[in-house]
Amino acid sequence: MSLIHLLCWLLSARLSLQEIINIAKPGCPTKCGNLTVPYPFGIGSNCSMNPWFDIDCDASVDPPNMLVSSRNEFRLIDISESQIRIKNHFVTRLCGNKSMNTNFTLNFSETPYTFSDAHKLTHVGCSDLAVLEGLSHRYVAPNLSLNNFAGGCVSFCSDDYQFPSGSSPEDGWCQIPIPKGTVFLKSFISDLEDRWGNVKTKACSYSFIGGKDNFTFQAVSGISEGAVVLDWWIGTENCSHARNSADFGCHANSVCIDADGGVGGYSCSCFIGYQGNPYLPPGCFDINECIDNNPCHSLAICINTPGSFICACQKGYHGDGRRNGVGCLIAGMGLLTLCSVSFGLKKFVRKRNLKNRRKKFFKQNGGLLLQQQTSIQEGQTILGNTRIFNAKELEIATDRFNESRILGRGGQGTVYKGMLSDGQIIAIKKSQLVDEHKSKYLVEQFINEVVILSQINHRNVVKLLGCCLETEVPLLVYEFVPNGTLFRHIHDDNDSHEFPFSWRMRLKIAAEVAGALAYLHSATSLPIFHRDIKSSNILLDEKYVAKVSDFGTSKSLAIGQTHLTTLVKGTFGYIDPEYFQSSQFTEKSDVYSLGVVLVELLTGLKPIMPSTSEEDAKSLVFRFLSSVNEDNLDSILDDQVATEGEREGIVSVAKLARRCLNLNGKKRPNMKEVAMELENIRMAQMGSIVDTRLQEDSKILSKDDYDYGWTSTTDFGTTTTSSCDAHPLMFDTI
Fold first, then answer.
1. pTM of the complete model beyond 0.90
2. Which position has the higher pLDDT, 96 or 599?
3. How many CB atoms lie within 10 A of CB 425?
4. What pairing do the DSSP bridges indicate for beta strands 113-115 and 104-107?
5. Is 507 within 8 Å of 678 (Cβ atoms)?
6. DSSP of 597-650
7. Average pLDDT over residues 96-103
8. b or e along 336-364 (b: 16 or more beta carbons within 10 Å of the residue's beta carbon)?
9. pLDDT above 90 for 579
10. 75-91 confidence digits (pLDDT tens)
11. N-term to C-term CA, the chain
């Protein structure tokens, strides 16, 4: 056989090999209409891995039906390596005509499917409370537990409101996140106008599964368009356990990938340089790069290797031999000169690119906005008493932002623990990387937090040490607070056993937080509203001193200004109901949120409690007010509070909390009054044992001129000092 014939035979053999790569199980169809169906999915009897992957192929139905369980049958749009897309027809409807009302429930428990992170529950309508209850984790395995969660959002409409139909409307809609790994969802809607006794005829409201950032909805028919994305996995164990079992699903030349999102199971994927179906024997085949798409230079010989290739330059030439690399160059002095010039040019280009990159990030992360609001200039290292860090310094401090250094994650980003070269322990908040149309809003939040915190120097407010503007996402550097959040100490049963959270300590923390907020409202040059007071934004240092944190959504008021008019922001369960109605945030809105925290301290309960039905859904505030009004406070008190606390002090705090939670903001006390009353209650409880420092603060709080004795910075070119000890920062959540 001639060389040419041999090459032609090898080429045809290669093509035949590609043709026999299995997509479906032998003897089973590979397509249903335009839908390709790879194993472990299958069409017909005995063609799938198990009944969860069965597809009912009806040529008259497009897209085809997929039977996920006896409870759910879905229309399958497409299948990828780790996800499927199904037709979206899941809608909850609330109308004046109750016969039109619907709720939807989705149940994927004990199936190979979980929700991806591509969706949120989107609600459209006016004056509604949309509620979503769910369950995460598919299987109850020895190392997995079922997690309940609940979320809600409130939608309000302007006077010129029009029902949204398209992407990103101005108002009349809200969204609730759907956590990755969710297996069960239940949606229902509650009419706020009905609850508040102001019933009127209005258009139908709808809740449905939509995209994170936009949605398309047909207002007339009440049908959401698009698809729902589900992750799929095989088995119930992770790779390390499944690999030892006889029915392990990954075949030759493939890698096993553990399911993410905290669920059991795994998926299989061909090694780089291989192709085929990893779920079917004999597994994945090597890709012959030299035949399929020769990656080598014209003066190089391509040699295929398992999973890769080699480009060898011909005799008399040197280089990597790659078409998109150096290629093949003539050997000798010319090559040495070329290499020297290339190295120098590469170094120059790298330095120029790095400089341009830093300038780009400086502008992108709000450097120009920061310059407008302060006297800082690009390149300065000091902003008032706040330092501007460089990226290299923070990379070293966090071991290149190693995952082992993560303290917590939240809606605004991730917090890392680090140590500076002088040994100081710090916490670094790294903002999340977002798409372009959201970045402007998050940069404004970042700059707002820098400007607000650089003005504050108070022992009960977390201290901002500095920021970094020359990285892809902006970074904030805080003192490190080691004892976590107040939320964790109230609600984590493990913590309560390790360290009893006494009534005296709860009362001290409440007084410290109120004092800090009174300072923000009254003692700074411009009053500051926090706008997101909650127990997870209150940190505790090594001596369990409270520190108010997370000022990303805070706002300063101009002289003479009494409130802010903004889109509703905050955390469900803590937001002032008046703010819901008017979108006007006042100092009394922070008072309401603190009232919720006081109730948490008294009861040990969370602000929102998941329920099995809409009728049983009651917030903590509702339960607390009902108990107080019925003179049945004992029924809702935390056991430790009821055991340790003096009755008079507990009742006084409960009455103060009720005043803070008054639906009419004008009837609530201001923050200074709350701080003074809590301090008086605390001192009465302590008897003859008086904390000298707190006694000093109480006297300062009672001054008419609001001179609290704490220093603040209003001139960003001036460095101020504080006699307070610096305590470090730790976030469980952001």
1. no
2. 599
3. 16
4. unpaired
5. yes
6. HHHHHHH---SB---SSTTT--BHHHHHHHHHHTT-GGGTS-HHHHHHS-HHHH
7. 79
8. eeeeeeeeeeeeeeeeeeeeeebeebbeb
9. no
10. 888 898 889 988 887 88
11. 72
- CA-based R_g, the chain, Å: 31
Supply 180's token pair.
Answer: 């990755």
Max mean pLDDT among 167-176, 216-225, 366-375 falls in 167-176
Note the pLDDT tens digit of each residue in 152-210. Answer: 898 888 766 666 555 455 678 888 988 888 888 999 998 887 654 444 467 788 899 88
Give the contacts of 258 (CB within 8 A, at least 6 positions apart).
238, 239, 266
Give how far Cα 172 sits from Cα of 205, 209, 267, 301, Å: 10, 16, 41, 64
CA distance 277 to 21: 7
Report domain extents, the chain.
83-232, 289-330, 365-479, 486-701
Are 119 and 151 a contacting pair, CB within 8 Å? no
CA 308/CA 166 separation, integer angstroms: 47
Q: Where on the phi/psi map is residue 531: left (φ > 0), alpha (ψ -120 to 50), or beta?
A: left
Place of tokens 């992360």: 365
E-only strand ranges, 202-265: 205-211, 217-218, 223-224, 227-232, 254-258
Give the DSSP letter of residue 73. E
Instruction: Give the integer Cα–Cα distance in Å for 59 and 138.
Output: 32
Give residue 330's pLDDT band: very low, low, confident or very high (50, 70, 90).
Answer: confident
Q: Which among 606, 683, 605 has a CA at the least distance from the CA of 640?
A: 605
Same fold for the pair 289-330 and 486-701: no
Identity of the residue numbered 78: D
Q: Which CATH class is domain 289-330?
A: mainly beta
- Smallest CA-to-CA distance from 290 within 276, 301, 298, 279 is with 301
pLDDT over threshold 80, residue 301: yes
Distance CA 683, CA 717 (A): 40
Cα 424 from Cα 252, distance rounded (Å)? 50
Which single residue is written with the structure tokens 């009054």? Answer: 673
- Whether a cis peptide bond, with omega within 30° of 0, leads into 40 is yes
3-state secondary structure labels for all residues of 340-372: HHHHHHHHHHHHHHHHHHHHHHHHHCCHHHHHH
Cis preceding-peptide flag for 63 (omega within 30 of 0): yes
Above 60 in pLDDT, residue 718? no
> How far apart, in whole angstroms, are the C-alpha atoms of residue 76 and residue 63?
6
- Nearest partner of 719 among 486, 455, 461, judged by Cα: 455
Q: For residue 726, what are the contacts with CB-CB under 8 A and spacing of at least 6?
A: 463, 479
CA–CA separation, 590 vs 512, rounded Å? 15
Where in the sequence numbering do the catalytic residues fall?
532
- CATH level 3 topology of 365-479: Phosphorylase Kinase; domain 1 (3.30.200)
Asked whether 95 and 88 are in contact (CB, 8 A), the reply is: no
What rounded mean pLDDT belongs to the chain? 78
Q: Return the CATH number of the domain spanning residue range 486-701.
A: 1.10.510.10
Name the one residue in this structure whose structure tokens are 């407008």. 372
Query: Residue 206 has what DSSP assignment?
Result: E
Q: How far apart are CA 521 and CA 526, in angstroms?
A: 8
Q: Is residue 613 packed enough to be buried (19+ CB in 10 Å), middle (13-18) or exposed (0-12)?
A: exposed
